[in-house]
Amino acid sequence: MIDYVAYILVKALNKIFAVVPVGASLWLGRRIGDAVFFFNKKRRVIAYANLKAAFASEKSPAELRLITKKVYRNMVQTFVEILHLTKINRKYVDKYVEVVNMDRIRNASKSGRGTVLLTAHFGDWELSSLVSSVEGFPIMVLAREQKMKRLNELLNQLRESNGCKVIRKGLQTKNILRALYGKNIVGILSDQDAGKKGMFVDFFGRPTSHHSGPFEIAKHTGSLILPNFIVRTNGPYHKLYLEEYIDFKKTAGPDDIRENLQKFAHLLESYIRKYPDQWLWLHKRWKSTPVRTVLILSDGKAGHLNQSLAVAEELRRARMTQGFKAEDTRIVVVDVKYKSGLSRVILTSASAIAGWRCQGRMGIMRRCLTKESYDALMKTYSEFVISCGSSTVPVNVFMSKENNAANIVVMKPDAMIPLNKFRLAIIPAHDNPKRSKNVVVTELAPGLISAEKMAADAAKLKSHIGVDAKDALALFVGGDNPEFTLTKEIAGSVLDGVSGFCARTGASILATTSRRTSAEITDAMKNALKKDPRCKLLVVANEKNLDFTVGGMLALCKVAVVSEESMSMISEAIAAGRKVVVFRLAKKTGAPAKHEWALKAWTDKGYVTVTDAEGLPAAIEKAWKDTAPVVPPKDMELIYEALKRLI
Fold it and tell me: In Å, how far are 97, 105, 110 from 175, measured between CA atoms?
């Protein structure tokens, strides 16, 4: 029924447009294109994301949005011109179409060989085939079969109204071969995704799947390939460019199919770069590309960045199970910085109502973020967005809309932003998240610790410190955050307790500070530990960071002592299967903190022992003597399985 209605409608439009001046028809087509752009969500977001993937580093969101709108205008104008095909003749072509390098098709027709007139969904590609016929070189065109049979046949009749012959479904390859062996001209469109079995060549900087069929047929039949692209210069006026031949007789080699396909891809890309609104961006052109980019939004906190990186690595692992290489998953980190506290409040409020129509409208991001942060984000296209930390959550939402990307949030977002704004939310149980399909509830914070990493980092650390620090105690000292403070008195008690225990037992000390550790505490640690012969390692994070420090320390220690405010570090120590003793800091307020809820949950499960600084020696001693194995939760496996489902 729909097919019949569409057939009647197109037939009627053909009669109407036959008497309407082409200029007026195209004006109406552009207005219809504007309307389709407004309502057609599904294809519009794909088109914009494709443009973003190609031009992120070159064009602003506003420019890309305008190009997307023009793509719709050109598409409808092309359809309108299809309805005009019955009145295209020599006079029409002479008036509206300028052919550049016409001698190339003349020479091809005289060559005694078949010719593949190869083009793309570019400009008015339907008109280009008729131009050839009107100029005296009738061609056979390979047209994609539409689902609606009546409408499909009507469109083919319109295509054949001026000398073209459509190769219909069934025995297509056989008919093409017969035509080329018969020294005819065959028109083929070749610019869409060919799936995982296609041939991959570079296209806009990424390996992109192409159909190699036209090239294999040309080689098999000894035919010339004549690339051509028709550009709409102004309304009904066009310029048809006939490019240099691709001739397999001159490029014979073991990989000549790929080399010539790459030539065509580069040629098409050059036209698209010059006329970006004239290519049909509405299909998923990079659907089969192996290369995907993960954008990590960083709030400058090492613990949060570490959690995001851990999720990104699990995403990479999940993709590798699908046959992709590790380097096919690119990870890009961009710092998120607001102009002011008020800017953050405004962007958070706006993100709660952000929808697909925000794509290409990043004005509020520009107003709320620093120029450096905004520019870095807008120049980054990614298929995935990951963030950890409340300040990055609104940017996560907007970037997922901008890139049509799958977004992942670690930790519970602000109450103002609902969880349905994310494809996946990874939230610790102590945050009491609402259970739903897109939520993974974990006991620990995600971390990069694994048995393989610990072994590798331990080898590097042993080499760095020059000794095998067997039976070591690892001391991880943090610092102030909005809820806690590490006082000089607490730090002094901790250092005395650790040194005293190690003096009694002969254990080695491996110690590190964090970026939060104040200069005063850092100096106290240097004074206390650098003269202690049992201290084999002291890494001051604000002076020098060694990427194998944490993994190596956890691998070599029996007990890890960690300051209370560092949830990420405590999680990694538990995930490493170590006995963990947590020393309390001074609270800044009397209000209960999320950290305390997490510590209570971990204490109840036997993962950690929490103590005041004064009780630290006894707690360490108890943990040191405890020989029961620590069985960490399988959080990263849960995350890995959820990411496999996501991709």
Answer: 30, 21, 22
Chain length of the chain? 647
Residue 135 dihedral angles phi and psi, to the nearest 5°: -75, 0
- For the cut 70, the answer to whether the pLDDT of residue 269 exceeds it is yes
Side-chain half-sphere CA neighbours of 245 within 13 A? 23
Quote the CA–CA distance of 159 and 167 in Å, as a whole number.
11
The Cβ of residue 319 has, within 10 Å, a number of other Cβ atoms equal to 20
**How are beta strands 97-100 and 535-539 bridged, if at all?**
unpaired
- The residues near 333 (Cβ < 8 Å, ≥ 6 apart) are 296, 298, 305, 309
Give residue for tokens 């219909």: 168
The Cβ of residue 596 has, within 10 Å, a number of other Cβ atoms equal to 17
User: At CA 569, angle to CA 564 and CA 573, rounded to 5?
Assistant: 105
Query: Is residue 268 exposed (0-12), middle (13-18) or buried (19+ Cβ within 10 Å)?
Result: buried
The pLDDT-based confidence of 162 (bands split at 50, 70, 90) is low
Residue type, 416: M
Q: Report the SS3 class of residue 427.
A: strand
- Does 619 score more than 90 pLDDT? yes
Tokens standing for residue 166: 């459509």
Task: State the Cα–Cα distance between residues 248 and 219, nearest whole angstrom.
Answer: 6
Beta bridge partners of 210: 199
Position 467 scores a pLDDT of 67
Confidence of residue 364 (pLDDT cuts 50, 70, 90): very high
Distance of CA 442 to the CA centre of its chain: 25
Q: How many helices (H) and strands (E) does the chain have?
A: 24, 24
Q: Which residues pair with 485 in a beta bridge?
A: 586
Q: Mean pLDDT across the stretch 440-465?
A: 90
Report the candidate in 104, 93, 96 with the shortest Cα–Cα distance to residue 133: 93
What one-letter code names the amino acid at 132? S
Best CA proximity match to 585, nearest among 601, 555, 600, 563: 563
* Contact (CB, 8 A) for 563 and 476: yes
CA distance 104 to 101: 6
**Residue 313: strand, helix, or coil:** helix
Lowest mean pLDDT: which of 378-382, 385-389, 523-527, 545-549? 545-549
Read off the pTM.
0.88
Radius of gyration of the chain (CA): 32
Q: Which residues of 218-246 are buried (b: 16+ CB within 10 A; e: fewer)?
A: bbebebbbbbbbbbbeeebebebbbbebb
Those residues with Cβ within 8 angstroms of residue 597's Cβ, 6 or more apart along the chain or in another chain: 430
> DSSP for 155-174?
HHHHHGGGT-EEE-SSSHHH
Q: What is the arithmetic mean of pLDDT over 545-556?
A: 89
Q: How far is CA 340 from CA 324, 417, 574, in A?
A: 42, 20, 37
For residue 189, the one-letter residue type is L
**Rounded (10°) angle between helices 549-556 and 567-575:** 50
Tens digits of residue pLDDT in 191-230: 999 999 999 999 999 999 999 999 999 999 999 999 999 9
Task: Tell me 369's DSSP state.
Answer: B
Residue 387: strand, helix, or coil: strand
Are the beta carbons of 80 and 28 closer than 8 angstroms?
Answer: yes
What are the tokens at 353? 């109502």
Mean pLDDT of the chain: 90
Residue 332 clears pLDDT 90, i.e. is over it:
yes
